[in-house]
Amino acid sequence: xxxxxxxxxSGFKSFFSNALRPKKSRQTLRKGGSxxxxxxxxxxxxxxxxxxxxxxxxxxQVHRMKYQAQHANLDSQLGERQDYTTxxxxxxxxxxxxxxxxxxxxDPNRKPGEGDIAKLSSRLWAHVAWYLDPASAASLAVSxxxxxxxxxxxxxxxxxxxxNREYKMQFLIGMEISLPHHLLCFQCGRYHRRTQEGVERIxxxxxxNPLFKCPEVTNMLNPQARTRITHGRTxxxxxxxxATRAHKYGPQYGISVEDMGRRWQxxxxxxxxxxxxxEGRLLMRVTSQTFAAAALxxxxxxxxLFSREDYWPYFSACxxxxxxxxxxxxxxxxxxxxxxxxxxxxxxxxHKVKDRIAGQRFDPNSLTTLCGFCRPMRRCPECPSEYxxxxxxxxxxxxxxxxxxxxxxxxTRWTDLGDGSTPNCLQWGAxxxxxxxxxxxxxxxxxxxxxxxxxxxxxxxxPGQRVLSMNPKxxxxxxxxxxxx
Length: 485
Prior knowledge:
This protein has helices at about 10-20, 40-45, 60-70, 85-95, 115-120, 120-130, 135-140, 145-150, 155-160, 165-175, 235-250, 300-305, 325-335, 345-360, 425-430, 440-445, 450-455; strands spanning about 180-185, 190-195, 225-230, 235, 260-265, 270-280, 280-290, 375-380, 385-395, 405-415, 465-470. The protein has 17 helices and eleven strands. It is flat, with a radius of gyration of 42 Å. By secondary structure, the protein is of the alpha+beta class. Among the domains are: about 120-225, no CATH class; about 260-340 and about 355-480, no CATH class.
C-alpha cells in the first residue's frame, strides 16, 4: 500500500474513531442476485398524455366574466344597485372605463332637448304638472320656452292666490341666483332693487334703514321680519338673507359676515356682536357687560339687569327667557362679587386677624369664583340659544375716582339664525317664539353652538363648561311666572 493511501491505522486514537463510526447498512445493492426491473427515472417523469389541458384565459378573467354574467342585471328604470355589498365588490371585479366622464349639463356642444319636449302633447305635459305642487309646476312651466307654450301662464297665475302664498315664496326663492342686484321682500312677495348695494350696515332700532324701496316698509300691520339683539338693537331678516346669499353665490349677492359685527354702548352696558356661517346657517354671538357693585339688594339687581321701557334684559335674550333660570343665574352671579371691607377701627383689625389666622389676604379685586348653580352654561330647550354668565375683573377708565379695575357681569349668548331662506324656517321661527316644534338638545346633541362658533376663531377660546337646560322643569308661564323678575 502506498504512502498516500489512508489505509487502516493502528493506535489508541484510531481505535476510538473506528468504534464511534456508524455502521454500514446491510441492505446493499449487489451485482448478482435479484435486480429491480423498474426504471426510477421513467417512473418519476409524468406522461404528457395525462396532463390537464391549459385554460383558455386566466382564472381572474374567468371570475370577472362569471361575475358580470350573474350581477350585470341593473334596474331597468333607475339603473342603480340597491345592495351596497354588491356595489363595493363590483368596484374590484368589474373593469372601470375611464374614457366616459360624467355628464356635463353646461357642455356647449350638448344637443338641445327642445325637440324631445315638443314631441309630447300639451295634454300630457298638463297631466305631468297635475301631480306637482304649485311651486314645482310653475318652475316647470318657466324652465324653457317650449314648456311655457305647452303649459301656458295658468300655473304662474295660480301662485297669486292667497292660499298659495307659501308656494309663491318657494318659487321666488329659487330665482335669487339669477338676481344678484335684487332682494326678495317677504312683505309684498316680490323682488326689489337694492338701494345700498354692498354697503348695507346694521343700524339701531330707532333708525329707519330700508335696503330697498317698498310701499310696505312703514306698514305697522305688516311688519318686517326681525329679531331682537339687545335693548335698542334689532336684526332684520334681510341681513340674514344678504349674508347667506354672499356665502352661497358670491360677494356680489350680499355682504360678508365680517362686516356685520358691531360694538356699541347704551344704558351703561357695553355690547359686541360677531357673526359666522356654519354649514350654510348664520351663527351670532353677542357679548354684553356692565360694572356691578357688591352686595346689591334685589331692587338694585332688577334696575341693573332690566330695561324700564319694555322690561326685557339689557343683554341679548331669546323669546323664552322668562321661562326658566336665566335671570336667577344672573342674580346668583351678582351675589358672588366680593364686598369691600372697612379697614379702619376694631372691625378692620378683626378682619385682619381672621385673614392672618386663615393664612390668606383679602383682595376686593381678586378673581371671583362662581358656584355650581351659576357657573354652567345654559341652553334654551325650545330654540337654538346658549348662555354663559361670568363675573370678570374689567378696566374702567371713565371712573373719576381712578378705580381702574372693577368687577363686571358678562353675559354671552350664542344663537343660530337659520339659513336665511324664509322667516318661517326652523331656527328663525324658534328664537322668535313662533314655532314650538324645535328641540335644541336633539339638534345639538354632540356639539353645542358655542363650541362650533369659538372653534372657528383661534384667538377666542372657551373653557370647558357643562351645558344645562335653561328650563329643566319645562314650565311655560311667561309673564305670569314670578321667578323671572
